[in-house]
Design goal:
62% of the residues lie in helices and 3% in strands. By secondary structure, the protein is mainly alpha-helical. Among the domains are: 185 residues, no CATH class; 55 residues, no CATH class. The chain has a two-stranded antiparallel sheet with strand order 1-2. It is a multi-pass membrane protein.
C-alpha cells in the first residue's frame, strides 16, 4: 500500500498542488514543449477554441433553453410534403424521402413518439402496394400496349359503366400506379418525420387557447399508441430475461393483461392531472365576440383548406397562395378572439428562436423552389408513362430539395445522441 509521502509529485504543480497555466497549455497542446502562449488577438481563443465555438454554432447540445419550437419541425415537414405533392418523378420523391429520413436519424430523440417514423415508412410502403393492387384489380384509364398478363374479367351490369374487374394488365398502368403511390407514400413519410421530431406535449402548450381542449385530445390519442408499444417491448424483454417465451398465443395472453392495466392507470393519471389543471373551465365572453369568433374561425379554416388544395393541385398555384394567406389571417383572428374563453396560463412558453426560423425557412424554401420548378421543368417532374420511358433526375429540382438538410446541421443535438457520439 503506497503512502501519501511516496506518491511522486507533479513537477508542474505549485505549492497547493495546482498545475500552472503553462503546464495546462502544454497538456492541451503536446506539440508545444514550452507551453508558452502564442500571439492572441482580442476575440480569438486559438484553434481549439474556434473549433468549439464552431461546433456550438452549428449543432449545440439540446436543452430547455435552445430546443427548437415544435411548430418549426411541422413547418419544415409540411414544406417537404408540398414539394412531394408537386412531382411524380420517383427519383425526386426518393430524394425528398431521403432528406426527411436523414434529418430524423440525425435529430430525433429516444422518446416514445420519436419511434413512430418507422411505422409511417411501413404505412407508406403499404399504400404503394395497395395502390398497385387496386390498379391491377380494378383497371386503369391509362392506355398501354405492353401487356404483362390478363386476369379473368368479371362482367358488370350496364349501370356500372367505367368500372372494370380484371382484364388486361399493362406495364403502363402499373408504372402509373407506382408513381401515384410513391407520391402518397412521400406525403405520409414527411408527416411521420414531423411526428418523430416534434414533442407533442410542447406542441400542445404552443397551441392557441381556443384549440387547447381539442389539442389535449389529439395529444393523448397520439401518445397512447407509442406508450402501448413501449409497454409491450418492456414486458417481452422481461419475459426473455426470465427464460419465458416471448412469442405465441400464450405469451400474448400473458402480456396483454399487464399492458391493458398500464394503459388504464395512465388514463386515470391523465384524467386526474387534467382535472387538477382546470381542464374544461372557461371564462364568460359576450355573445357578439363568440359569434364573431365562430365566423372568423370557420371562414378561415375553409380558406386554409381551399388554399391548401390549390397549392397541392396541379393548376391551383395561382389562387392557392392568396387564398391560403387570407384564410390564415382570418383563422388567426378568430383563434385570438376565442382564446378569451381560456383561463389557463403558460409557464415558460416556447419561442421561435433563430434556429427555429431557419429550420422552418428551409422547409418553406424547398416548397417554393419545387413549385417554381414546375414552371420550367414540368416534363421532368411528371415523367410520362405513354410511351413508357425511364425517369431522369433533373438537376435544378434535385438541388431545390437539398435546403431541407439544413436542420441536420443547425438543429440542437439530443443529449442522448451527443453522449453516444462522445
Amino acid at each position: 500500500m503506497t503512502r501519501a509521502s511516496e506518491t511522486p509529485a507533479d513537477p508542474t504543480a505549485g505549492p497547493a498542488g495546482v498545475r500552472s497555466a503553462r503546464a495546462l497549455r502544454r497538456a492541451a497542446d503536446p506539440a508545444d514543449p514550452t507551453g508558452a502562449p502564442g500571439p492572441r488577438t482580442p476575440g480569438t481563443a486559438g484553434p481549439a477554441g474556434r473549433a468549439g465555438w464552431r461546433a456550438r454554432l452549428l449543432a449545440p447540445v439540446a436543452d430547455r433553453g435552445n430546443a427548437l419550437h415544435p411548430g418549426a419541425w411541422w413547418l419544415w415537414a409540411l414544406g417537404l410534403a408540398v414539394a412531394a405533392s408537386r412531382t411524380t418523378n420517383p427519383l425526386v420523391l426518393g430524394l425528398i424521402v431521403g432528406v426527411a429520413g436523414y434529418v430524423v436519424a440525425a435529430r430525433r430523440t429516444d422518446a416514445p413518439w420519436a419511434r413512430s417514423y418507422g411505422a409511417f415508412v411501413k404505412l407508406g410502403l403499404f399504400v404503394v402496394a395497395l395502390r398497385i393492387v387496386f390498379s391491377v384489380a380494378l383497371g386503369s384509364p391509362i392506355p398501354g400496349t405492353h401487356v404483362l398478363f390478363t386476369l379473368p374479367e368479371v362482367p358488370l351490369p350496364a349501370w356500372a359503366q367505367g368500372i372494370r374487374l380484371g382484364g388486361r394488365v399493362t406495364a403502363e398502368q402499373v408504372v402509373f400506379a407506382l408513381y401515384d403511390g410513391l407520391k402518397l407514400a412521400a406525403l405520409l413519410i414527411c408527416v411521420g418525420a414531423a411526428n418523430a421530431l416534434a414533442n407533442p406535449a410542447r406542441l400542445l402548450k404552443s397551441l392557441p387557447g381556443a384549440l387547447y381542449e381539442a389539442g389535449v385530445a389529439v395529444v393523448v390519442a397520439m401518445t397512447f399508441a407509442p406508450n402501448l408499444v413501449a409497454d409491450v417491448v418492456r414486458l417481452r424483454t422481461a419475459r426473455r430475461l426470465r427464460g419465458r417465451p416471448a412469442g405465441g398465443v400464450r405469451a400474448v395472453l400473458h402480456i396483454g393483461l399487464p399492458v391493458l392495466e398500464g394503459a388504464l392507470e395512465r388514463s386515470v393519471a391523465v384524467a386526474a392531472s387534467m382535472d387538477a389543471r382546470g381542464y374544461g373551465r372557461t371564462a364568460r365572453v359576450p355573445p357578439a365576440v363568440r359569434r364573431t369568433t365562430n365566423v372568423l374561425t370557420l371562414g378561415g379554416l375553409l380558406g386554409v383548406c381551399a388554399g391548401s388544395y390549390g397549392l397541392l393541385a396541379a393548376q391551383g398555384a395561382g389562387y392557392g397562395l392568396p387564398l391560403l394567406a387570407a384564410g390564415l389571417a382570418a383563422a388567426v383572428g378568430g383563434l385570438r378572439l376565442g382564446g378569451r374563453r381560456s383561463v389557463r396560463t403558460r409557464y415558460r412558453p416556447d419561442r421561435f428562436g433563430p434556429r427555429s426560423w431557419l429550420v422552418a425557412a428551409s422547409g418553406i424554401a424547398v416548397a417554393v423552389l419545387m413549385i417554381r420548378a414546375n414552371a420550367y421543368a414540368p416534363d421532368a417532374l411528371h415523367p410520362g408513362v405513354v410511351p413508357l420511358t425511364a425517369p431522369e433526375l433533373p438537376l435544378w429540382p434535385a438541388l431545390s430539395v437539398l435546403p431541407g438538410l439544413l436542420p441536420a446541421v443547425i438543429a440542437p443535438v439530443p443529449p442522448a445522441r451527443e453522449e453516444s457520439s462522445a
